[in-house]
Amino acid sequence: MGVGLPVGFFTATRHGRWEDYAGSFLAMLVVCVPGLVIAPLLILAFSIKLKLLPVALWDSPWHMILPVIALGLFFAGKVARLTREGMLSAMQSEFVIAARAKGLGETRLLFKHAFRIAVLPVVSYSGPMLADLLTGSFIVENIFQIPGIGVFLVNSVTNRDYTMMLGLSLLYAVLLIGLNLLVDFAYTWLDPRVKYE
User: Fold this and answer.
1) Backbone Cα Rg of the chain
2) Those residues with Cβ within 8 angstroms of residue 43's Cβ, 6 or more apart along the chain or in another chain
3) Residues 19, 80: contact at Cβ < 8 Å?
4) So what's the pLDDT on residue 108?
5) pLDDT in tens, 169-183
6) HSE of 39 in the Cβ direction (CA atoms, 13 Å)?
7) What is the pLDDT of residue 196?
8) How far is 43 from 47, CA to CA, in rounded Å?
9) HEC string for the chain
10) Positive or negative: CA dihedral 195, 178, 61, 64
11) Which residue, of 25, 26, 136, 172, has the fewest CB within 10 Å?
């Protein structure tokens, strides 16, 4: 979110310029290159060649940097694409054109009016995205030797541990439902047109 939202916002405000094409290309590139390719490249560059960060395990905050980058780049690219498309459609909507015609400043117009509507697709995507981040990171957990939920889920399937498999599937379902419920509540806060009865 911290990378995808600003990149998507910036590329939408620079629509049709070289910044838009460069940001869109980078967002598409990180979506297309999976974590199992990015993780070894990060280890090779930052751990083996430059010796800046540790290779694996989960002992200190320094150990978190490479796995977070390897796992988060894919989702940052998707968030950037969603934000860009949402901003482009919000900037062409009638209320933004009317506010611009009334003389509202461009910065205030973009942040206060257009961004609140443009971020709605990202909010919709964030519920399943967070559940997927918490449970679907098996490959990155294996590469960096992190004892996470994804490793336990795959190992329980391999070892035919039905109790663990059922428990982790239930945990994933609860996470997915809970995060989608939070997304629905966020909708009412972001878009005043949405009302729940």
Assistant:
1) 20
2) 55, 56, 66, 143
3) no
4) 84
5) 898 888 889 888 888
6) 22
7) 62
8) 5
9) CCCHHHHHHHHHHCCCCHHHHHHHHHHHHHHHCCHHHHHHHHHHHHHHHCCCCCCCCCCCHHHHHHHHHHHHHHHHHHHHHHHHHHHHHHHCCHHHHHHHHCCCCHHHHHHHHHHHHHCHHHHHHHHHHHHHHHHCCHHHHHHCCCCCHHHHHHHHHHCCCHHHHHHHHHHHHHHHHHHHHHHHHHHHHHCCCCCCC
10) negative
11) 25
User: What's the rounded mean pLDDT across residues 159-167?
Assistant: 91
Give tens-digit pLDDT for 47-80.
999 999 888 888 888 988 999 899 899 999 999 9
What is the amino acid identity at position 181?
Answer: L
pLDDT, greater one: 168 or 187? 168
Greatest pairwise CA separation for the chain in angstroms: 66
Where does the pLDDT of residue 148 fall: very low under 50, low under 70, confident under 90, or very high at 90 and above?
Answer: confident
How is residue 29 written in tokens? 């590139």
